[in-house]
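pinning this so it doesn't scroll away 📌
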Amino acid sequence: MIEISTIARLTALLATFFCGTAAVHAATSDWVDNQGGRMRLVALAPDTQGHIRAALQIEPEPGWITYWREPGQGGIPPQITPAPGSGVTLARASYPVPKPISVGPVREIGYDAPVTFPLDLRVTGEAPDKLELTAFVGLCKDICIPFQAEYSLPLPANAQPTSRELALLDAAQAVLPEAPSADFAIQNYQISADAKSLSLRLTLPEAGGKAPEIYVTGPSGYVFFQQANAKHEGTTFSADIEIGKLPKDYDPKGKSWGILVVDGDRAMETTLALE
């Protein structure tokens, strides 16, 4: 458990900012350093379909944390932004399984160890000869430091990745949550008429045991994880997720929300189409 003064964190957020520019060699940038850790970018040249396979590596210093795509009740979500006019867009950033982190009375969601975010980038026109993007993350301990780095990686069309770069990208992909399967899936779900709770019925890999961690991501900036009425019946688990407050005039009907279920050493991620 990490105890952090909320006042100190907010003061540091307003007062402290770090920005670095990374030099490059091959398809891997140099590390950009910060008081709370460091990060770098790895990218391959576009394939024949215009996909750029890349990853952002973040290594917090011991005792520091960084955040999942929805950081919980506090923290800073990662933001990865290709340079405007660069001819590249971010199709998807993927995130390994996070952990709940208690920060005083605040519950956050993130990582207290090195983490790599796989990136799926798309070329929108002619293949660029370099990849330019900005990464913005939060690193927190007794203070919280916004950490920004700007990258410019050459992407020559005939460049061959090193075995180390391929291994890094493959390893990052291998630890992502799995897709639903016969033994790990959402059986059914229903949001209440007042949008205050989401009822879930899941198939879990193992019978009994601890309740799984469940993270439901709604509109941007909202994540829900408080469980009520949890019940195990063999490999079936049911619970109500407390939704609480949503943005003013927000109607969940017709929206797609994300869900991550962590059960022991397995995790499953999918989307919920709300009706």
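📌 and the second one:
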Amino acid sequence: MNAPADIVTRRAPLAATSWNPEARTLEVVFSTGSDVSRMDVRGGFVERLSLEQDWSAFIGAPVLNSHRRGDLTDVLGSVQKAWTVGGNREARAIIRLSRRADVDPIIQDILDGHLRGVSVGYVIHDWKETTEAGQRVKTATRWSPVELSIVPIPADRQATIRGETMPAPTVPADPAGANPPAAAAPTITAPADRAAVNAEIRSIATVAQLDQGWVNSQVDASATVETARAAAFEAMRTRSAGAAQVRTTTINFGVDHTDPALRATAIGEALYARANPAHAPSEPARAYLGLSMPEIARDCLRTRGIATGGLSSAAVIERALSTSDFPLILGDTVGRTLRDGYRTATAAVRQLGRETTNRDFRAKHRLQLSEAPTLEKVLEGGEFKYGGLAEAKESYKIDTFGRIISITRQSLVNDDLGAFSDLARRMGRAAAAFEAQFLVNLLTGNAGAGPTLSDGFGLFHANHGNTGTVALSTDSLTAARVAMRRQKGLVAEPIAVTPKSLLVPPELETLAETLVAAITPAKVDDVNVFTSKLSVVVESRLADTGRWYLVADPAEVDGLEYAYLEGEPGPQIDTQAGFDVDGVKVKVRLDFGAGFVDWRGWYASKAAS
């Protein structure tokens, strides 16, 4: 059929001109490409739709009841034809409505003039950005309508689901003046709650099994819930078209970077990358690279729907500090920098222990079991005998340690990343140094005897067979190794402990390296038996310059054990907008504890004075 005449020239109501009762078709205007004000990370811009499109993909798209798609009854019909008129200034469509009985009341409301609004759901594929009179203009050069809805009122101008009221038809003059032209349906505009909309978009993506890229595109376009649903519907339809008939239900787990906490992580990483150019930022973080601290604060406020026009950088920072997002972002940046400092300052003695976790702050009881019982001969017709395992236990607990540092408002306004990055890195090193000193104090306590174990003796005691009174030398190393090899288990079974590390203070470092160095011997007697057998570990916190230790591999023999609270290894960060402090308070917390759970993997010696 030929394209209908311009809708504004129709002289009768929809029922008289546009409605075809036999075919159950109706003509609608679904877009004029008019400008819409929107907001993104860079600020405000004008969105414009180009109507120079290929509408063939729109044919067959569903006509919905107010964008609802909860069940099949929400589908009122389908799009039969789409085209533009007036030099691509107006987009129109012919829709066919269902013959279901529940659709008839809606048709009647259209004929009676009660329903005049239509709304189109679309997805934008390509943008072209220009500037007009100092205003950013983003023109959607390629976009796809995915559904058309009959609505009580068109969608507001702030929504991506763009609705336009169908113009009131022109009615012939009535001699009696009794039939005035019908008034056009009003357009209602209401501000959008972006936080709630973004949350709903994430829910839609989860249900539709769409990835993070899809979510980001909807959020960046300031999409409304209706637009996102329409786009998701189209994505599902496209996916279904190429899918096999036999399917397996799959649950896809992804990362949602529009969630406030994860969005804070992305921005925090971007700030961290500014302070650490060697860091390669992730894809979500790249969107925020180059933004200053005040610009990030302004973006946090916009995301919350808070106007920032006319506000100075200081005022923006002050308001952003009252939200939950901005302190989270700063906390993420501080946390990354703190962990850098923490990792680079790892203590030497720490590598000689085994890391574990504790669920709570109660004492951790470490159970030890003996070796399996020896097999015994079973006589013909004889009975197998039960063998038992001896057991013992040692205990220790974790405690909480921490400090509070502050990031001043002045450094935030000045965009001084170096100031608090340096402070955070120092705090990370301080946390690592605290752990190291904690372990050294545990090892060297009780005048070098170490902690008292459950048997009432110190870690290093003659009853444990793990202490000597000679200086470091080849002979003393030999004696120490023999002592460890001769260690026995809980039921006096040989366990043949193999030493792996030689722990010394800095004063014995050169001697230790000489003793384990690889050399080319001139004769058999000169062969260094400790080459490739021991590794030297130097701990500068060991105050006793003459005491040295031989240590077994902690993965093979129990000994030193340190623990963090489950799920919180290393120092943790909490942030809070300050009241007594003008800025952000950052609490550094460490839940940490350590203890020796067995003496058999450690040996200590010092020359008698």
